[in-house]
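sorry for the late reply, my laptop died twice this morning and i had to redo everyting from scratch. anyway the thing you sent over, i finally got around to it. pasting the sequence first so we're on the same page, its 458 residues, then the predicted structure underneath. double check i copied it right bc i was rushing
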Amino acid sequence: MFEDLGQLIIKISDGIWGAPILILLLGGGFYFLVYSRLAPLRYIGHALQILTGKYDDPNEPGQLRHYQALSTALAGTVGMGNVSGVAVAITMGGPGAIFWMWVSALLGVSTKFFTCSLAVMFRGKDDAGEIQGGPMYYITEGLGKHWRPVAVFFALMAMIGVSPLFQANQLTQMVRDVLLVPNNIEASFQTNLITGIVISIFVGLVVIGGIKRIGNVTGKLVPTMVVVYTVTVLYIIFSNSSQIIPAFQTIFHDAFTGDAVLGGALGAIIITGVRRAAFSNEAGLGTAPMAHGAAKTNEPIREGLVAMLGPIIDTIIVCTMTALAIIITNTWIHSDADGITLTAQAFDSAIPFFGKYILSICVIFFSMSTMFAFPYYGVKCLGFVAGTKYQNSYNYVFVAVIIIGAVSNLRVIIGLIDIAFALMAFPTVISTILLSPHVKRASKDYFKRLKEEKFVTK
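ok and here's the structure:
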């Protein structure tokens, strides 16, 4: 019965990720980019200045500084999607899927700018009087209370989308294939279960701390894990420097032919790339606006500019490095492994013995920081649907789901998360399009004041 259910989930997932979702995410991103007259791309330098704290004001409303808001959002995106998600993309769609991840991410920059600007612009209050942001709030505050059913639908799907199923599964797979099996410890359902229980206990000890604590933890973890991972992957890439150009050639060639895996099925490659990009940077899905909506600022456009850096850091930089490591080492050709195991084999091939253990440390950082950040989103969504009185119960469900993820099938988990992501995207992108004139007017005013140097800086 469970096997049949798993196959049904995979079938539904493949069905829902067709032309409509591609038009929504890629078309929506293109619309935002053109409608804003390329503003997000033109002001990347200013966005970096904001991130340094140059414009922070502790007296402004909100819960997180700009840096903490981006760190919390990145903790939910820069993670397993960049390590094992890229491996899944190459396995399912070939190297060409990476090109379509890039396209999706570049368009996602403008989507993030709009959604996270709205998250601050149309902040609401929960039933405890606390200021909150996110699609469910800007849907009801911006479009009216009669849109509440749409906002509730988003929140329900988001509670599934931000579950720890994928992170727990891949961390458990890493422990099994990299640490247990090579040391002659037999892998079984029991070992996966024990690993899942250990992970759930550790995560449970952290997530009860709330958003400020999560912001502090992720603010320290995200730079550390990115630096360690970046240095290691760059070593792998540049120690095989003669293969860099051929690797890019493979990506570009396969992006339009599908020769590597799918025998010319270009549509399937595009879909795979967009699906994995959405999994990686979540532009258009609506989770990041929940973190950025908590930023301490009275300037919605400023927070939108900070948020748009996410897809650049996440997909354009980190995912590309992972893809190059896998393609350069040829592990995607010579191995039938999937997910984190394929990435571990690439690391082990380039850095014998040490590589897989370095990756193991990185994976712990990636998966744990994501699992520290995701409960915040789920708590916020449950608080919106059922009230703040019950919202913290999501943390306990979240911890329990870690154990389920540890013992479940990877493809079924990906299918379930992809279904939730697709169903989150429709209310998020459609409502953002409807509210986009508000962002355009605010952008015009903000950039005019910026040009006239009317902002106080530190």
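The two ends are 61 Å apart (CA to CA).
thats about all i looked at so far, will dig more tmrw
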